[in-house]
UniProtKB/TrEMBL annotation:
PANTHER family: ARRESTIN DOMAIN CONTAINING PROTEIN, ARRESTIN DOMAIN-CONTAINING PROTEIN 1. Pfam families: Arrestin_C (PF02752), Arrestin_N (PF00339). One of its GO terms (biological process) is protein transport. One of its GO terms (cellular component) is cytoplasm. This is Arrestin C-terminal-like domain-containing protein. Residues 178-309 form the Arrestin C-terminal-like domain. Belongs to the arrestin family. InterPro entries: Arrestin-like_C, Arrestin-like_N, Arrestin_C-like, Arrestin_domain-protein, Ig_E-set.
Length: 413
């Protein structure tokens, strides 16, 4: 829904040109501002501000002379800030009663990071409208609307992520006469994925011990590192954590290949072009051992991108188009429903390689699954009223068998 700032004497509405408010770095953000007044007001000007920045902020405590002091760690990284005058000259003049419509367009820089909202920082892009009143002590009319930006992370440019990985762990359990080895082999088909893909967990367990193994855990974890000046803060978030009942009897070998991890809407790895926030992902497989023994843990780092490997295209579905309500553009006319970002990719800028991947099924654009408590600037009162979840491209996979080759066989199985 389009946010509208409404008071008794006026309203401000901001709409963007596509119905998911999502753009790729390098594209042109277009939209319309509608300002309606029911009383004449003396104003200086009406402006539209396009802004992109990263802000990190957290607090720590330390003891100094027997007293506890709170230290705030914060730093800002600006990406752009452009202001356009829609009405007025900066000098006081009366804005008559009426309904005013202004179109705006801004070309995003090509090298900016994807949108991100976390507990201790954000990468945020906004369009703000300010109607500046002439009276010194009067409150200005302000409306802010955030939008999502996606940085292209093309997995095809990272061929090392196409290589499979085989992770093994051995553990000796028991004492003296009951001692035996448990050997686990987990094969990851590759190391690079996109949101919406399904990662198969191909696990082989060779249980040479006297213990019966009955539990298997699979988790996907996101790690964020926030940096401010000479300090940094790490935060781990569990994206998914599934527990399964398995049966692997003593002195047997079993193959467990029906377990999968599906990647939900998430920001791409590393958050490239951002100096203050870094994001990594890993998958962990845990084979539970009963008794006082420590479980066997196998872990692998993965990379989440925004353009999948070309050989995975055949396994993706084309999203079913969803209708959108006509949007009012301010002059009494309605525009036809747009399926940009739902049925087809958002209209491309030169940086978006549609010509290079014409056969790539378009993704949907879905709100981030994992959101922290929003962080705000001290004077950002308007934004506090608008919780925002960035959108990321999500591909609809049809059949994981069409995407992944079977893992190499384990000797003796």
């Amino acid at each position: 829904n389009t946010p509208v700032f409404v008071m008794s004497s006026h309203s401000i509405e901001i709409t963007f040109s596509n119905n998911v408010d999502t753009y790729y770095a390098g594209q042109i953000v277009e939209g319309t501002v509608v300002l309606e007044t029911t009383k004449p007001k003396e104003m200086n000007c009406v402006t539209v501000e396009m802004k992109g920045e990263c802000l990190v902020k957290w607090k720590t405590s330390k003891s100094v002379g027997g007293k506890t002091q709170t230290v705030t760690h914060t730093e800002t990284e600006p990406y752009f800030k452009e202001t356009y005058v829609m009405w007025g000259t900066g000098s006081p003049q009366v804005l008559p009663v009426g309904r005013y419509s202004y179109n705006f367009a801004y070309k995003l820089p090509s090298h900016i990071p994807s949108s991100f909202e976390g507990n201790y920082g954000y990468v945020r892009y906004t369009c703000s409208v300010k109607a500046e009143k002439a009276a010194y002590f009067s409150f200005n009319w302000v409306q802010t609307r955030p939008f999502s930006v996606i940085t292209l992370v093309d997995l095809n440019g990272l061929p090392q992520l196409m290589e499979p990985e085989c992770i093994t762990r051995n553990k000796t359990v028991g004492v003296i006469f009951n001692r035996g080895d448990i050997h686990c082999q987990w094969t990851l088909p590759r190391k690079g994925f996109v949101c919406g893909e399904i990662i198969p967990i191909n696990l082989i367990v060779d249980n040479g011990s006297s213990k019966k193994l009955t539990s298997l855990g699979v988790s996907l974890t996101q790690t964020k590192v926030y940096k401010a000046n000479a300090s940094q803060k790490e935060e781990k978030s569990t994206i998914s954590n599934d527990q399964y009942i398995i049966v692997c009897k003593s002195h047997t070998k079993e193959v467990f290949d029906s377990t999968v991890v599906k990647i939900p809407p998430l920001p791409p790895s590393e958050l490239i072009y951002c100096r203050l926030i870094n994001i990594t992902y890993n998958i962990k497989v845990v084979v539970g051992i009963p008794g006082l023994h420590r479980d066997i843990k196998l872990k692998s780092d993965i990379t989440i991108g925004s353009i999948p490997f070309r050989n995975a295209f055949s396994g993706f579905n084309v999203p079913v188009p969803l209708p959108s309500a006509p949007s009012y553009v301010g002059d009494g006319a309605e525009v036809a429903p747009s399926y940009a970002g739902i049925y087809a990719p958002i209209p491309s800028a030169p940086s978006f390689p549609l010509d290079k991947y014409a056969e790539m099924p378009p993704p949907s654009y879905m709100e981030a699954m994992l959101m922290g408590e929003p962080v705000f600037e001290e004077d950002d009162k308007e934004q506090k009223q608008q919780p925002f979840a960035p959108r990321y491209p999500v591909f609809d996979i049809e059949d994981r068998a069409a995407v992944y080759a079977p893992p190499p066989p384990y000797p003796g199985v």
